[in-house]
Write a structure and sequence with these properties.
By secondary structure, this protein is α/β, with parallel strands linked by helices. The protein contains twelve helices and 14 strands. It is 41% helix and 16% strand. The protein binds flavin mononucleotide.
């Protein structure tokens, strides 16, 4: 809360309202999100047959089902791929919906679930005033359920598509900081705003309606010192990756220290940060069946797509993914959990103990895998105290 001119204290973040959608979600022992496959191929460069589809109808069905099952949030990534996507027989990720537009439509079709969309704030001629206005609009459509994952653009190729140049890593966070600062001021100011920033200026700018709970939910995805400093200043939720690569036990060993650094950075600024990690989950009745299915996914690897995706990632400067190799990409995901429902829940308990406040799951075959997760894993999560009713 911030004191105003008369000494009253005014809420500046959605978590300060006990009845905000974000407050409801962060009361869960382990926040549960679904990573929407708004891009063709989802996270898996494999040709094994599956239902996973980038289309709006498919993602809308998943979102409604996730809401029914009690998931807390859905999330869409944003990418700018060239013709042929990342290559291979599948033209991996060639097709993708813009998550901001997709999530805006989803917000009118849902009642409770949070909807987070990624935006490359520094690409093209985005002005904070655009996003303040668009964000206030979706905030009202969704009743305070919308959040923005602010990304700065790790890929030089994507920056060049907009006629721009790749900007140095930490300078991007400096720019994103000013951008977000202006957003928050526009959402909070009750008078016209005039300012001359280092990167953006405004003259008598005003945004109304104001967001329902002070401002939309702010999110960023990072593993770097500059990104953590940004998160500590602005974000409610931080998407993290494993500093030790995709293998779950290595991740569980490395995550306590990583989470502690991020939370300490927030605490230094008097803020409580919540971290969310995204496991790719392959779950079947038994460990053996899950491993067999995993093997079938690997056997159908689209090697051209894996190579294309890995070389795309290597042209970027994302620090959070530095420890991630390429062998696991046929299945994909930042970390992988493969096994029976009991095995999966055991690892989720491990993630909670390692200091993660939430998970955002991805699947190979989203629609049936989400059903199986709802039937077999969620009840065990409740029994284990990871989810409350
Ligand atoms: C869960 C998650 C989702 C992400 N979504 C996107 C995205 O949609 N678009 C994008 O360009 N980068 C995305 N990123 C990459 C981040 O923007 C960033 O480049 C990466 O986390 C490295 O940040 P760092 O260099 O600060 O460590 C995502 C990262 C994570 C962990």
């Amino acid at each position: 809360m911030m004191p105003d001119d008369l000494g009253h204290r005014t809420a500046t973040a959605p978590a300060e309202f006990p009845d905000s959608p974000l407050s409801r979600v962060i009361r869960q022992p382990l926040i549960l999100g679904l990573f929407l496959p708004v891009q063709s191929g989802g996270w898996s460069a494999s040709l094994l047959s599956r239902t996973t589809d980038w289309t709006f109808d498919y993602n809308a069905t998943l979102t409604r089902r996730a809401e029914e099952l009690g998931f807390d949030l859905v999330f869409g990534l944003a990418q700018w791929a060239s013709k042929g996507g990342y290559g291979g027989i599948s033209k991996y990720r060639e097709e993708s919906l813009d998550p901001f537009i997709a999530v805006t439509a989803l917000s009118a079709m849902t009642q409770r679930i949070l909807l987070i969309s990624t935006i490359h704030a520094l690409f093209g001629p985005w002005h904070p005033l655009h996003l303040a206005k668009f964000g206030a609009t979706i905030d009202h459509i969704s009743g305070g359920r919308w959040g923005i994952n602010v990304v700065t653009g790790y890929s030089p190729r994507e920056a060049r598509m907009f006629g721009g140049q790749h900007i140095e890593h930490d300078r991007r966070y400096e720019m994103a900081g000013e951008f977000t600062d202006i957003l928050c001021r526009l959402w909070g100011e009750t008078e016209d705003l005039t300012l001359r920033g280092k990167f953006w200026s405004l003259e008598k700018a005003f945004v109304t309606p104001k967001p329902v709970y002070a401002r939309p939910i702010l999110v960023n995805a990072t593993g770097s010192p500059a990104g953590i400093a940004y998160a500590a200043t602005y974000s409610d939720l931080v998407f993290i990756t494993s500093p030790a690569g995709h293998e779950i036990d290595a991740a569980l060993a490395a995550l306590p220290a990583h989470n502690a650094v991020i939370k300490a950075a927030g605490a230094e600024r008097g803020r409580e940060l919540r971290t969310i990690i995204n496991p790719m989950i392959v779950c079947r009745e038994t460990d053996r069946e899950a491993q067999r299915y995993h093997q079938a996914i690997l056997d159908a690897a689209d090697y051209g797509a894996i190579e294309g995706f890995v070389s795309h990632q290597q042209t970027g400067d994302a620090i959070a993914w530095k420890a991630h190799g390429d062998k696991h990409r046929a299945l994909g995901g930042n970390i992988q959990i493969i096994g029976s429902p009991e095995h999966v829940v055991d690892k989720l308990i491990g993630l909670k103990r390692a200091g993660c406040d939430g998970i955002q799951v991805a699947f190979f075959d989203f629609a049936p895998d989400l059903e199986f997760f709802g039937d077999a894993v969620l009840p065990l999560m409740k029994q284990a105290g990871l989810r409350s009713a």
